[in-house]
# Entry
Amino acid sequence: MKELRYPAVVILGPTASGKSHLANEVAKRYNGEIVNCDSVQIYRGFVIGAAKATQAEQREIPHYLLDIAGPDDEFTAGDYAREARKVLISISERRKLPIVVGGTGFYLKAVLHGLPVAPLRNQSLRSRLQRVRIRRPAALHRLLTAADSAAAARIHPNDHQKLIRAIEIASSSRESTSEKLEDVHQELSPFRILKVGLSPPRPLLHEAVNNRTMQMFTSGLLEETRQLLATGYGPESKPMQSLGYRQAVQVLSGTASLSAAIEDCQAKTRQYVKRQMTWFRKEDDVHWMEGFGTDCEIQADVFSLVAGFLGATYDDHYDELSGGQLNSFP
# Structure
């Protein structure tokens, strides 16, 4: 007998490719609910620079894993994977179609394929490393380089959260972080996944990035950043190191002009887009669309993919999710 599994749709792609717009359209058409896969959108108060769904959009279509962390919370890819898998099951059990959307590749990998087995947290060591971070933040990267040079080469010197975790792992075992990454992964079950990727032409994508960056700064990003700093998010906190907010902090601190900050954010976002695509191209079985999620033709092609996917998942019994909607999940 053919195994029946819950369907789920993943919409991935670079910044400014229209992922969220496409996800909303798919959700409206196929009785879906949206699961955020963006590492900045999980933090409360990060709206403009994170391109978070508006309150009106969230009222129309349920969104999950938004605004779930605060300034003192450490939220890792492992935390995300655990929470996302719970949400996916919950959505499916209510006879809805889960749609995972976002541009954080490591989060996506964590929820779809699981993460390598790693040691539990060592609170005593973490406390010592946190004191080092406060007094001499640059020392963290040097410590990791001495313990695991391969891991240090992958992690930005300012990403203190990842540096601390990597030092913790390296110190807990003779195996390096790099060797740990070769451990067995646990695939997401009981789901059958349709992956849709957006890959607009690079010149048009760069133009969209530039326009989006400019709109962020003209729509209140500086004031939002000022308010976030006042509520307890430090300039060195993980979400404040993300693109847009990092440059806004520089403007507010007087270390960069507004025009210089915008240009820097545009350039670094274009570089980030390239890294995103390099990551996503490694993902298997992605149906790539050569355009934006806002394009009607792209949407029509994706609708056809989803309809066929639901039909293949449930033979021909997909009433409640498509057309007349799928009556029941298995």
The CA atoms of residues 216 and 326 lie 40 Å apart. Residues 178-185, 315-319, 322-330 have pLDDT under 50 and may be disordered.
